[in-house]
Structure formats: structure tokens, C-alpha cells
Design the sequence.
């Protein structure tokens, strides 16, 4: 069985769907994004890519969609058909069991909206976004909408006390040697787990921002960032934390964007966060610069997976962002100059306003 077939077969496990459905933040955010924009869905043609059990398709039908093509490659499509039937939307929702790459719509019909919950761990794991972009290019009208319409990946340095701190004193025994070997073993692949906000050691950095309306599949083959961040509190630097946000379209200036976030600061989702663990930890001080290069590249053999690699850099030899949150002399000097410039600008503005006021008084 090839990796693609393995992928679709894995989604026939009902426990996977239970986990996703019971993820309140995930399911409710999609419901809100659809139901709070009923004017966008009313009498429109929608495609749900990778519909699973069909709940997003039902949300679209409830919002007034004229037609929903619910595309699902795995045998879970049979459950989706029953869900559609029990919700009395058989006249609206058509479940198509096929890979979206092979789907042909009647009369080469185009759709107004593409809805999909395609996100994997650290956003791109599983590579389902590729299929969504194929659907976009094949089926979406020129002025059509993507739900969600954009996604961003963030990274921040972190501690991982839930994995390691217990070994300092384990039932009265120091297990430092075991903990060190455990770190070495776990550093070989990313760890999916929950990180507490207080375990972040620095501000998050934007690794990538993906606009689903125009991004090309080839642009997802490799992502990379090189950055320096100042530590915001002393602690043990044990790895990098990755998470993502997805943003849905806004159709009115009075509406706030609806965002599905997997940040440590947001309610927990089944995606949790992805941690790249270091084989060795080190103590860091507040405002100390941490420099690294993080790359994500699509696996050559299994293109639904990515290889993640971190290189620890010397902060003395790489460019720092402006302004930088670290305490190196050059960064402190730049911050001082920027503050002086800002203060001078304010003074000049106040002086100008005083002159104008005086002129108004003189004229009167």
C-alpha cells in the first residue's frame, strides 16, 4: 500500500473523527465562520474538500447554500452520506467519494466557496493543503472565497518542564543521566504536546503567512527563517515551539476577523503545539539573545510529511531584527536612537500644533 493510500485509510478510524469533532475550538470556530456569514453562503455553490463526517457541509447547508459538493476520498464518505440524510439535506449536499484531484463536476461547474479543514500538526503535516489548492485552481470562481482564507505559522523558544523537570528529583533520586538520554532520543522527531504560556521564553516570530487565494503548491516545498530573539525571562532553553493560526474572510468593516488559533495562549485544540526538542538544554538569562535558523522542507519520499531542522547560531555573527529585544550593545544603541527619534518627532509635532494655535488666535 502506497503512502497516499495509507493516508486515506487512516481517516477511516472513527477515533480520529471523534477527536476532531470534540475539539470545541476547532468545530465551533468553523460553525461561527460559516453561520455568521450566511449572506456569503446563501444560494451559493460550495465545495467541502476532505469533508470527513460531513459536519462542515451541513453547516454550509444550514447557512443557506444552494449546493454543496462534499468530497471525501476515504470510506468515511459513507458516514457523511448518512449524516447528510439524518439532517435532511440530501437535496443540497452531494457526497462524492473520490480524491478531489480526480473529481469532475457536472458541466464543469465552478463553485463560489471552498471550505476545508485541512490543517495538520505545525499546519503543513499531512500535506492536505496541496489538495485544497488543486481544488481552488480547478473549481473556484475567479471571485470565489476560501474558508479559511489565510494561515500563519509562528515559532518561539521554550522550556519543556513537563518532560524533564521531574527527573531532577524522581522519588528522591536524581535521574539526570536518564533525562539526558531521553532528550537525545526525543530530539530526533518533533513532539506534539501542550505548552503553557509561561513556558515560552521569548516573543513569537512569524515563520510563514500563507494566502490561500494565491499561494502555489511549489511555494510550500520549503520554508525557512533565521532570527534572533531576546529572552523575556530566565529559564531553561530546551526547544522551539511551533503553532498556527487560520483566519476566515471578513465581509464587512464592522465585523471582526474569526481566527482559529492553536497558540499556547488560546484554548487547547487537538493540534496542541509542535515542539522541536534540543538534545541539550541550557540556562538562559533575561534579554539574552537566542539565534537560530529553522527550516521546513517537504520529504522527498513522502510528500505529505516535512523534515524540520534547527541550527543554533552565534548571535554575534548574524543580523538582528530592528528593533531587537535582546540586550547586546548594538541593539541597545539602536533602541536608544529610535526612542530619541520618536521623542524628537513628538516634540516637533507639539511645537507645530502650538504655532498653528497661535496663528489661529492672531487671526481672530
Sequence:
Amino acid at each position: 500500500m502506497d503512502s497516499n493510500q495509507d493516508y486515506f485509510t487512516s481517516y477511516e478510524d472513527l477515533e480520529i473523527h471523534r477527536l476532531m469533532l470534540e475539539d470545541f475550538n476547532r468545530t465551533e470556530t468553523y460553525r461561527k465562520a460559516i453561520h455568521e456569514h450566511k449572506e456569503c453562503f446563501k444560494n451559493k455553490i460550495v465545495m467541502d474538500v476532505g469533508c470527513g463526517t460531513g459536519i462542515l457541509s451541513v453547516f454550509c447547508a444550514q447557512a443557506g447554500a444552494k449546493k454543496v459538493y462534499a468530497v471525501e476520498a476515504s470510506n468515511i464518505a459513507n458516514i457523511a452520506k448518512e449524516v447528510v440524510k439524518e439532517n435532511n439535506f440530501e437535496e443540497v449536499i452531494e457526497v462524492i467519494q473520490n480524491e478531489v484531484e480526480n473529481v469532475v463536476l457536472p458541466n464543469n461547474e465552478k463553485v463560489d466557496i471552498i471550505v476545508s479543514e485541512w490543517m495538520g500538526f505545525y499546519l503543513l503535516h499531512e500535506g492536505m493543503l496541496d489538495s485544497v489548492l488543486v481544488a481552488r485552481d480547478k473549481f473556484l470562481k475567479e471571485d470565489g472565497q476560501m474558508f479559511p482564507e489565510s494561515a500563519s505559522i509562528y515559532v518561539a523558544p521554550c522550556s519543556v518542564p513537563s518532560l524533564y523537570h521531574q527527573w531532577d528529583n524522581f522519588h528522591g533520586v536524581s535521574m539526570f543521566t536518564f533525562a539526558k538520554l531521553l532528550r537525545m532520543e526525543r530530539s530526533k522527531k518533533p513532539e506534539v504536546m501542550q505548552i503553557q504560556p509561561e513556558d515560552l521564553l521569548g516573543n513569537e516570530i512569524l515563520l510563514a503567512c500563507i494566502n490561500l487565494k494565491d499561494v502555489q503548491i511549489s511555494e510550500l516545498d520549503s520554508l525557512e527563517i533565521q532570527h534572533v530573539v531576546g529572552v523575556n525571562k530566565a529559564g531553561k532553553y530546551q526547544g522551539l515551539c511551533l503553532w498556527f493560526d487560520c483566519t476566515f474572510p471578513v465581509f464587512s468593516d464592522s465585523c471582526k476577523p474569526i481566527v482559529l488559533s492553536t497558540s499556547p495562549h488560546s484554548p487547547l485544540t487537538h493540534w496542541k503545539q509542535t515542539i522541536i526538542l534540543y538534545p541539550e538544554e541550557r540556562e538562559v538569562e533575561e534579554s539574552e539573545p537566542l539565534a537560530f535558523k529553522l527550516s521546513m522542507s517537504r520529504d522527498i519520499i513522502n510528500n505529505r510529511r516535512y523534515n524540520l531542522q534547527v541550527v543554533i547560531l552565534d548571535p554575534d555573527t548574524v543580523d538582528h531584527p530592528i528593533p531587537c529585544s535582546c540586550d547586546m550593545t548594538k541593539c541597545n544603541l539602536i533602541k536608544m536612537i529610535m526612542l530619541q527619534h520618536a521623542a524628537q518627532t513628538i516634540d516637533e509635532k507639539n511645537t507645530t500644533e502650538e504655532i498653528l494655535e497661535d496663528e489661529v488666535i492672531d487671526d481672530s
Observations:
- The chain has ten helices and 14 strands.
- Residues 320-351 form one domain.
- The two ends are 88 Å apart (CA to CA).
